[in-house]
Every structure is written in C-alpha cells, then in structure tokens.
Amino acid sequence: MLSGLSGLAFLVGIAFAGGQAFAQGGLGNITVTPTRIVLEGRARSGTIALANTGAKKATYRLTVINMRMNETGGFEQIEEGQARPGEQFAEGLIRYAPRQVTLEPGETQIIRIAARKPAGLAAGEYRSHLVIRAVPEAGAGRSIEQKSGEGVEISLAVIPGVALPIILRHGDVSAKASLSDITYDPPPMTSGRAGASLTFRLNRAGGSSIYGDLGATYFAPESDEGVLVSEVNQLAVYTPNDHRIVTMSLTFPEGLEPQSGGKFVVIYRTPPKDGGNTIAEGEYRIQ
Fold first, then answer.
1. For the domain 9-170, what is the CATH superfamily, name and number?
2. 175-285, superfamily in CATH?
3. pTM (2 decimals)?
C-alpha cells in the first residue's frame, strides 16, 4: 500500500541478449536475431530481424541506451554525465530505423543499423545497447484502488524487452584474453555429483571487447580422454573492464567422480561461425 500516489507504474524487464533473444510477457512475445551487431572494417551497416511470435498484434519501441558491465557480467544503465574513464559510446555514431513498429502475429520487421563516423574520430571501440520494448496497450495493468484512509493501491505492469550490444570499432583495435585464478568447488557431500563448479577470472587486455564460448573438460588421472562437463556460450568482457568473474556449473555423467590427480581444462573459443579458434586456455588439477 502506497499513500499519496496515483497513476500507473511500469517496470521494465530487460533480457540481455546472447545468441538468439526471446522476450515473453502479457504485452507481447518477440524473437530477435542476431542479438549482437559489430560494425568494423568494411562492415559499416547491419540488420536485425524482429519477429512477433505471440498470438496478438503488438507494438515495439526501439531506443539506444548506454550500459556498463560489472565484474560478474551484470549490467547497469549509465545516466548522462556519469561515464567513467575508458567508457566510449556508440550512441552518437549510429543510425537505426525504424524506431517503432507494429507487427501482426507471425510478422517480421527488419531493423537497419548504420555507422556514421565523424572526421577525426579517435581509434577505439564504441558500444551502446539497442533496447527493444513492447509498448503496453492502453489501460494495460491498470489496477488502482482508493481505499478509505489507506491511500492508493498501485499494480505494476512489467514491460518486457531485450537489450542488444551495438559495437563500432574504428582504427586498429584488438584484444587478448587469458584465464587465471581457477578454483574448483566439489559437490556437497549430500548431493552426489550435483553442485560442483569452477570459478575463475576471464581477463581482457587491449582496445576491444572479447567474445566467445567457454567449455570445461574433465580428464581422469593418467587419461587423455576428456569428458565435457560444462559449456557457457556467447560470453563477453566489454571495454573498459579488464576481467570478469565466471562460474561454470559442472555436470558429471553417471559413474564419473572427479579424483585426486584429475584435471579440468577450460577453453575459451571464438563462436563456431567465426572459426571456433582458441582464444585462451587454463587448467585446474585436483589435489
């Protein structure tokens, strides 16, 4: 119960995109692909397909915001004037259209994005996020009741949406990655093989972000035959951050129990469409 308030409040539920983004809710279902645009070299434009996968006509609004990634991969919006050293934004360096679309069920709209680099732009990586939100129908979520002596009761409607990184690279920029500080947390004694994990630092150095897929493989003592026990795809460390703390949950097949002298090998690779090349590698040996 909130005293002295009137009107309707909306919460914005934003999903941060990986390979293919899905946003679901009472205000519309959408599928977005791809969920990451990189403009560099001769690639000065890109497209995003926005599809209404719901059963009702829906309207979507597109905006660009600036966000920073924290140490564990979460995001927070950067308000005007709150940029930190090293944060460079693509907001004023891109054009996109359309900015609002209405789609029937099953209909798809192509969103076009283009770079507009001014003369004298400093070399580096510039990033902002394109946010796609469903526009609520008139009256959606309106549940406001006046109760005698108790003020106003407000219902909150959630506005679903997705946020896609738009990255513009200018000049000669590159990055290197490494893995460090790998630790192994074995499963609790009472849970069998469930609950084990690897935690480590994914380090980034250079002028651009890093982006790829992680895989963890277990090797028994004196064995060259590994078993894949965890995968995490589409994982990035964005500039200017120099690292990200990653935890991978491990799943062991029936009959396999990690032993002293065994080891985990963690490999960070470019996505398959980019060749699947190894970017960084590390290992942890069980004592």
1. Immunoglobulins (2.60.40.10)
2. Immunoglobulins (2.60.40.10)
3. 0.83
